[in-house]
Write a structure and sequence with these properties.
The structure holds two protein chains of two kinds. By secondary structure, chain A is α/β, with parallel strands linked by helices. The longest helix of chain A has 18 residues. The relative contact order of chain A is 0.11. Helix content of chain B is 42%, strand content 10%. Chain B has two domains: 70 residues, Orthogonal Bundle (Arc Repressor Mutant, subunit A); 78 residues, Glutaredoxin, CATH 3.40.30.10. By secondary structure, chain B is an alpha+beta fold. Classes of the chains: A alpha/beta, B alpha+beta. The interface between A and B is large, with 55 and 43 residues.
């Protein structure tokens, strides 16, 4: 099928507003601004669009949580903190077509009644932040942003807010804290951001790709969008494929395509003609799946059934040469580094798990190690922490131990016991003469 | 061949950053940032970026100045600065080499790159060469996994690196 989100890829000056308008850009905005905001929300809800950041929550439903009668200002935040290992679709989208993201932001802001929107972009994406700022200037000059947009009386300002290097700020409440100028510590929920978000006001946080899909839904209708993909998993999705494939990159495909098609047809198969060993379906937090499950359709529901998560669409491919103990160690290094330190099970658990896996790989594993790893994972997930980072490092542990337990057991079986640590001990003072008093002599 | 466009960082030595003042251009930017948010505190991250771009890193003196300007406690500002990995709290070299060490880059050969670069520069992660040219950092996923392995030098991404390609880039830096 023809790409929708990446339709301008390969075009000359694809980022400029003139190219975007040649493709019919900002047409959806004109249409949306004469609709009632409630109808815009309804259209998006009926399209079945699910959040593209990883959780897959229905976007229209999320917008519906914003209290319409609240006297407080409302905010829309575009989450471009893209930090999940294996995910690089938002960067591509911003490089190819920043105006599509902006149009989505304006329509979404209109739908929830916001007059300020922030784009929270990870600090490393400096070039991308500049691309967005240039696009904002262009859109403002054409009257698609600012005061009295297209003479409808609707005002909106969009500001780019750069992060400064913290994975956790991709979590929506940590992101909100970060915009407020604080350390990125996630907040307890409820209250959810839709009710109490940034600056204590109702806030909607949506992913870049989610927002870029919105103009197309408004332009062609909910039914058209719902006709792409599968039931409850509608539309196209940007799959970012990395690791051991011939042609890594971002591919826009309808939901429901199988991982085999993605890897073999679109990415040219496993690099160097090697055999596929495993793949991570949606960014590093999703449990790894073995090659035998490569025919799983890529939808939120099918991947969940296969025991993993669809996530952000970041597919990491590993060939037969990869040592799975090494792979888990690498991922745990990431989580141990990125845990914000707020909740004990995650802060201590991520380091502890890393220590154990590191020791196993160094050849000093112990028989009880795998059980300990599973216990750490159990205590750091499923509601034991404020945000899902506890789950995010627990799920890979579960996935690797479920499908590749034999490799961990083999590494432990090869283990040499660590030499016993000898603590320095002070010598006992038996030299009695040293302690005898002068009188006793 | 990759075009090498990275400019060296302007890095002030600690003695020049013991106490700082914002010049007119910086003040204008700060005013602009303050208009974007309903609270002064929310301008903290952008103002810290402004300072780091100007002076190369965030010294305790810079933290005090920022705190004073935004009506925050210096300790609070320090807490924020140290939470985020991209704010430098010690003067870096002219070129900040940030090598991605996460899974996708590793699968595509980042570890060989790391060994080579450490040997070539004679420094480990977190260290700066004696001539003050390079600081080497191992970082987590840079979000460009499709073009692995990736190294970020100052503000620019260099992708699909091999040892030869990286050597050419390092030699081309001024």
């Amino acid at each position: 099928m023809k790409p929708i989100l990446l339709r301008a890829k390969g075009e000359e000056n694809s980022r400029s507003i003139t190219t975007y308008m040649r493709f019919g850009g900002y047409g959806a905005l004109k249409k949306a601004l004469i609709m009632d905001p409630a109808d815009v929300r309804k259209e998006v809800k009926e399209s079945g669009l699910r959040g593209r950041g990883g959780a897959g929550f229905p976007t229209g439903v999320k917008w519906g949580f914003v209290p319409v009668d609240s006297p407080k200002p409302k905010y829309l935040i575009c989450n471009s903190d893209e930090s999940e290992p294996g995910t690089f679709k938002d960067r591509e989208l911003i490089h190819v077509d920043p105006h599509m993201v902006l149009e989505g932001i304006v329509i979404a802001s209109y739908a929830i009644g916001a007059s300020t929107a922030y784009i929270y972009i990870r600090g490393e994406f400096r070039e991308e932040a500049e691309i967005l700022e240039r696009a904002i200037d262009e859109a403002r000059r054409k009257g698609y942003l600012g005061k009295n947009i297209l003479k409808t009386g609707y005002d909106l300002e969009i500001f780019v807010h750069r992060g400064a290097g913290a994975y956790i700020c991709g979590e929506e409440t940590a992101l909100i804290e970060s915009i407020e100028g604080k350390r990125g510590h996630p907040r307890l929920k409820p209250p959810f951001p839709a009710v109490v978000g940034v600056f204590g006001c109702p806030t909607v946080v949506n992913n870049v790709e989610t927002l870029a899909s919105v103009p197309h839904i408004i332009e062609h209708g909910a039914e058209w969008f719902a006709g792409i993909g599968k039931t409850r998993n509608t539309g196209t999705k940007l799959f970012c494929v990395s690791g051991h494939v011939e042609r890594p990159g971002v591919y826009e495909l309808p939901m429901g395509v199988t991982y085999r098609e993605i890897i073999e047809e679109h990415c040219g198969g496993v690099r160097g003609g090697k055999k596929l060993k495993a793949f991570i379906p949606g960014g590093s937090s999703c449990p790894v799946l073995p090659a035998s499950l490569v025919d799983t359709p890529a939808t939120f529901d099918d991947v969940a059934e296969a025991g993993s998560m669809f996530g952000s669409g970041g597919v990491i491919v590993m060939d037969e040469t990869v040592d799975m103990v090494w792979a888990l160690e690498n991922l745990l290094e990431f989580y141990a580094h990125e845990s914000c330190g707020q909740c004990t099970p995650c802060r201590e658990g991520s380091d502890w798990a890393l220590d154990i896996v590191r020791r196993i790989r160094a050849g000093h594993g112990r028989p009880e190690d795998l059980e300990t790893l599973e216990r750490i994972a159990r205590f750091a997930s499923q509601g034991m922490t404020i945000c899902p980072l506890g789950d995010a490092f627990s799920m890979p542990i579960g996935g690797f131990l479920k499908h590749f337990r034999d490799e961990f057991e083999a590494a432990i079986a090869r283990a040499k016991p660590l030499p016993p640590k000898k603590l320095p001990v002070l010598p006992l003072r038996f030299e009695r003469h040293l302690f005898q008093s002068e009188e006793a002599k | 061949m990759t075009e090498v466009r990275t400019r060296p960082l302007e890095v002030l030595p600690p003695e020049k950053l013991e106490s700082v003042a914002f010049d007119e251009a910086m003040e204008a930017r700060i005013e602009e940032y303050l208009k974007r948010y309903p609270t002064k505190q929310a301008a903290l991250l952008p103002v810290l970026w402004l300072c780091q771009d100007r002076w190369g890193w965030i010294s305790p003196g810079v933290m005090r100045a920022v705190a004073g300007r935004l009506g925050l406690a210096p300790a609070f500002v320090k807490g924020v600065v140290t939470f985020y990995t991209m704010y430098q709290t010690a003067p870096p070299g002219k070129y900040l080499l940030q090598v991605c060490t996460t899974l996708s880059c590793q699968l595509c050969g980042a570890s060989g790159l790391v060994e080579h670069i450490k040997e070539k520069l004679g420094i480990d992660f977190g260290e700066t060469t004696a001539d003050g040219r390079f600081t080497l950092l191992g970082v987590q996923c840079l979000g460009a996994c499709g073009e692995a392995p990736v190294v970020q030098i100052n503000n620019d991404y260099y992708t699909e690196l091999t040892i030869e390609k990286l050597d050419r880039i390092l030699d081309a830096l001024e």
